[in-house]
Amino acid sequence: MEINFGFTFNAIAILTGIFAWGVIAFFTYRIYKKQIEKPKIWKIIIVIFVGIFSFSINWNMFDTMLKFPILPLGVWILYFVLKGKDERWQTYRSFAWLGFWANFLFLASTLFAIPIHQAVYPKDEPTTYISNIENASIINIHPSAKEQSLNKESLLKQLQTMKQETIYSDQWYEDTYMNAESNKRSERFPYQLIGTSSKWGSGLHTIIFIEDDGKGILLSTPKKQLYFRSEDSLIEGME
């Protein structure tokens, strides 16, 4: 029995994030224990969060946005605010810098999570995007579509054997919109598969379209599209 709560989340990112915050908490405790004058805990938390604020360079790698911290803006802000207040800066300086260096810890945890996520949730397998089909069905999204029903048994049986193929977007657009009159246009993917969910903990949000012959599926994510073909039709009554 599979429990589906109707939402997805990235379990790998959550676990690595918890680990990163655990490391920050550990070093915060060590700094706190070494200080003679013990600052208030809530002030330490604020200083660390302000210290995290930085000027960063963003870089996309493996469909993941990475942030490389360059300038410790939060540390500078805290310095100018606290430097003239009875050695307050000396008290909170280590916590402020801990906040800035935490950015590198978050970066490392993200880099560590990327290969793990790809190993646990392969991006080139349809079973990653279509896991639970208990409530699956198809709906028409184009006037050229006919009333059809999903063959769940066929879909479940062929998920493991579907082959990824290249979809030629330019040719598809030309055939659909350039070489046909507006009242005679037919959509290559007139059906949408609904009621499915991706693998638990993958954090993947996918819109799934079914080809007019019932043998092709187009997986559309916010970052890319994948096209797979099956041997038999996924629609009832189609060969």
Short précis:
This protein is an alpha+beta fold.
Written description of the protein model:
With 239 residues, the chain is α+β, with helices and mostly antiparallel strands. The chain folds into 2 domains: 11-120, no CATH class; 126-229, no CATH class. It has 7 helices and 8 strands, in the order ααββαααβαβαββββ. Strands 3-5-6-7-8-4 form a 6-stranded antiparallel beta sheet, with no helix packed on it. Helix 2 (41-52) packs across helix 3. The two termini are 31 Å apart.
Q: How many strands? A: 8
How many domain regions? 2
From the spread of the alpha carbons, the general shape counts as: elongated
Helix content: 40-55%
What structural class do the secondary elements suggest?
alpha+beta
State the separation between the terminal residues, measured CA to CA: 31 Å
Which stretches are poorly predicted, pLDDT < 50 over at least 5 residues?
A: 1-6
What letter string, H or E per element, gives the SSE order?
Answer: HHEEHHHEHEHEEEE
Number of helices: 7
Instruction: Give average pLDDT, whole number.
Output: 86
Main sheet attributes: strand count, strand direction, barrel closure: 6 strands, antiparallel
C-alpha Rg (nearest Å) = 26 Å
Strand order of the largest sheet: 3-5-6-7-8-4
Q: Which strand-content bin applies to the residues?
A: 15-25%
